[in-house]
Amino acid sequence: MSATEVVFYIISFVMVAGGLGVVLSRNIVHSALALIMSLGAVAGIYVILTVEFLALAQLVVYGGAVIMLMLFALMLTRARERPQALFGKNRPVALAVAGGLLTAFVAGILGTEWAQSNRDEIEPVPFEEIGDVLFSVWAVPFEVVSVVLVIAMAGAILLSQPDEGER
Amino acid sequence: MPPLENVLVVSAILFSIGVYGVLTRRNAVNILMSVELMLNAVSINMVAFAVYGRVAFDNTFTGIIFAFFIVVVAAAEVALALGIVVRLFRNRATANVDEVNLLKW
């Protein structure tokens, strides 16, 4: 087992622990902090898979923007001021569904013969080649997604405007 | 590099955790967090296939580009969904999805 693999297993453990913290934590703010841990570990996995660009984007967008938005929403909806049941009544069903999905996935993954040659000869993915592909083959989707982002942000602003007569 | 199977299994575990969170949590923001977990699990899958199958896929990096687009669309989705949650809280004074049953029989 190489050093990279050891680091991969450690990061995976952190990621899964963070995920469990998100879904099991009794305090919603703790959930948000566990989400930071989990998404940061996902960035670590991207680094191990040699896609540093995506790791940086992940850290900036999720660690910076998304978590901040979620914490703001938690504060605005005063989630902590009203102690109450955090979980619904369908816990056994959820456990069955999640467990069944996991079993099916793992059985499928381990039952497949993956055609990988020698995994130690996989080359790192350089920044430049991703940029080349992104701005040539994927140029139109790239522009479309930026329009989507603008429309979504404008919609979010519009949604949170107060109604007439309010205030 | 870890074997491809291990990366896939880890992402399957993360996805199942997300499914469990979506089905059990009551708070809408918390459900969104679980959805983020699921999106990230899928991204890991795509990146893993793109990196391990790089030669087979002729250096096109489609999986990596998809993961990049997932990040962008997730940001848009979170902004919109949180706008809806704040709106909901203002109208109904709750952010719990099971208390929002106006359209339910």
Quote the CATH topology of the largest domain in chain A.
Four Helix Bundle (Hemerythrin (Met), subunit A)
Q: Biggest β-sheet of chain A: count, sense, barrel?
A: none
Mean pLDDT, all residues of chain A:
86
Uncertain regions of chain B: pLDDT < 50 for 5+ in a row?
none
Radius of gyration of chain A: 21 Å
Description of the structure:
With 167 residues, chain A is mainly alpha-helical. Chain A folds into 2 domains: 1-82, NADH-ubiquinone/plastoquinone oxidoreductase chain 6, subunit NuoJ (Four Helix Bundle (Hemerythrin (Met), subunit A), Up-down Bundle), CATH 1.20.120; 126-167. Chain A has 6 helices and no strands. The longest helix of chain A is centred in the middle third of the chain and has 25 residues, at 52-76. The longest helix of chain B has 31 residues, at 62-92. Chain B is an all-alpha fold and 105 residues long. Helices cover 73% and strands 0% of the residues of chain B. Chain B is built from 3 helices and no strands. The termini of chain B are far apart. Chain B has a single domain (4-94), classed as Helix Hairpins (Orthogonal Bundle), CATH 1.10.287.3510. The chains are: A mainly alpha (167), B mainly alpha (105).
Provide a concise account of the structure shown.
By secondary structure, chain A is mostly helical. Chain A contains six helices and no strands.
Main features:
heterodimer; A: 167 residues; Four Helix Bundle (Hemerythrin (Met), subunit A); globular; B: 105 residues; mainly alpha; Helix Hairpins; 73% helix; elongated
